[in-house]
Structures are given as structure tokens and as C-alpha cells.
Specification:
mainly alpha, 4 strands, about 40% helix
Length: about 250
């Protein structure tokens, strides 16, 4: 609660006129900003552009090798499932936590939980329109980016995880269809894929590796391998590749 006059400052030390009002363990807060909001915004935008726009300048013909392989080897099927009904939408809404973040349209999950059946039917008609010709109300396509700290004391842009929050109605629609697609694609996925599928989680990768090492040790089998953690791997893939691969697999 007292102002301190700082004579000199480094990364880990402050030199003060007096220590008489301080005790070991006392907290010191910096209340006066040393920069402007525009500089902070620019720092985040520059870092995120480098992360999300990695493939922006890659010509489309560079992706033809991947797409040619996908056309030749991905299993082809026709997946189909019904559109969202008012009853299903009501169930999706009720399953959301009351503290779920709202999008820029201002529609909260509490608002949706109070909607009568007639309004839910209108929302389902909106979904059917979007699934027919791709037309969405512009409010649902606008998102805000929330920065979640990845460490206790963030010091730089990379210490934050950007989360894009779209409108609640769009997220409900996306969750429904993603869940359906994951279930229908499950039979054609390799057994060793553990992410984003039913009854699986990433930790099973390590269990599989431990079993392989144990089996090789018991039976005297030579074993070698490589573990690679590709940072932001999917940010390298443009929509052209992802959407065509999904279409080959039969995703509507």
C-alpha cells in the first residue's frame, strides 16, 4: 500500500531509497504501465501471424503431392447423418456449463437455456440453410481471441495460448458435427491413433511405447525408434488440403 522510489532496476533486483517498510515475503506490484496498448497488440499480432500464416505464401501446386497421395490411398466412403433437430439442440444446450464463454454476438448459454421450442426450431432452420448453401449470419462468424497464460508468471507473447471464441450457436453446431464425424471415421483410423477419438487419449501413446520396449526386452528383440514433437504441426496445413482430405473420406 506504499509507493516505492526506485533508484535502479534490473531483471531480478530493485534498488530503493529505504527498506524500512518492507518485510521478507512482501509483495510488490507495478501499477503504472510502461507501454501502450497498441504496442502490446502489435506484439501479439506479429507473433500470431508468424504462427497461423506459415502457409500463406506457399503456392497451391506445392500441395499437390500430398493431395495426390490422399486421392490414391485414403479410404473413400459416403458419411451422412441427420441435421440438428430442436430436441437435439436442446440437449446440446443443456450439456454446456453455465460458465461457457459467450462470443461477440453476446448470446450466452444462459440465454439459450431459456429459449422456447419455437426459437430452437428457428435456430435449426438457420443450421439447415448454412448446410445447404454455406450462408451464416455474420454475427456467428466473428470471433474474439482470449489469451490464456500457459505459465504462472507470463513474460512474453509465447507464454500465452490464444483461444478463438466464436458464437455459442456456431460452437454447438460444430461440436455436434465433429462428434458425428469422429464416430463415423473411427473404423478406418489406424489402431495407433489416440488423439480425438472415442475412448482414447494422448497418454496411451506412452503406454504403447512402454509395452513395445518391455516386449522387446523380454523376447530379446532389437528395437529402435524416434519420437518427434512437431510444434504447431496442423498450422502448417491450409484449408485446401484439410477440406479435400475430409471430402475424400466422405465427410459432408
Amino acid at each position: 500500500g506504499l509507493p516505492l522510489e526506485i533508484l535502479h532496476a534490473t531483471d531480478d533486483c530493485l534498488w530503493l531509497n529505504s527498506l524500512s517498510d518492507l518485510r521478507p515475503g512482501s509483495g510488490i506490484s507495478q501499477l503504472q504501465c510502461t507501454g501502450v496498448k497498441e504496442d502490446l497488440e502489435k506484439a501479439f499480432c506479429d507473433a500470431w501471424k508468424a504462427r497461423w500464416d506459415r502457409h500463406r505464401d506457399v503456392p497451391e501446386d506445392r500441395w499437390q503431392t500430398i493431395l495426390t497421395f490422399a486421392r490414391a490411398h485414403l479410404p473413400r466412403s459416403h458419411l451422412d447423418w441427420p441435421s440438428i433437430t430442436p430436441e437435439v439442440l436442446g440437449h446440446l444446450i443443456s450439456s454446456k456449463h453455465d460458465s461457457s464463454a459467450s462470443g461477440l454476438d453476446g448470446v450466452s448459454i444462459q440465454d439459450l437455456k431459456r429459449m422456447p421450442p419455437a426459437v430452437l426450431q428457428n435456430f435449426c432452420s438457420m443450421y439447415e440453410q448454412a448446410e445447404t448453401d454455406g450462408t451464416w449470419p455474420p454475427q456467428l462468424l466473428m470471433g474474439k481471441v482470449a489469451c490464456l497464460a500457459k505459465v504462472d508468471h507470463p513474460q512474453s507473447v509465447m507464454d500465452y495460448r490464444p483461444i478463438t471464441i466464436l458464437g455459442m450457436l456456431y460452437r454447438l453446431w460444430g461440436s455436434y458435427h465433429a462428434r458425428k464425424a469422429i464416430r463415423m471415421l473411427d473404423p478406418v483410423l489406424p489402431d495407433t491413433l489416440y488423439g480425438s477419438r472415442m475412448a482414447c487419449y494422448a497418454g496411451q501413446v506412452w503406454s504403447q511405447l512402454l509395452w513395445a520396449v518391455e516386449d522387446a526386452t523380454v523376447h530379446g528383440i532389437a528395437l529402435s525408434g524416434l519420437i518427434a514433437d512437431l510444434q504447431e504441426a496442423f498450422n502448417h496445413l491450409p484449408r485446401l488440403v484439410v477440406l479435400e482430405a475430409a471430402a475424400i473420406l466422405g465427410v459432408p
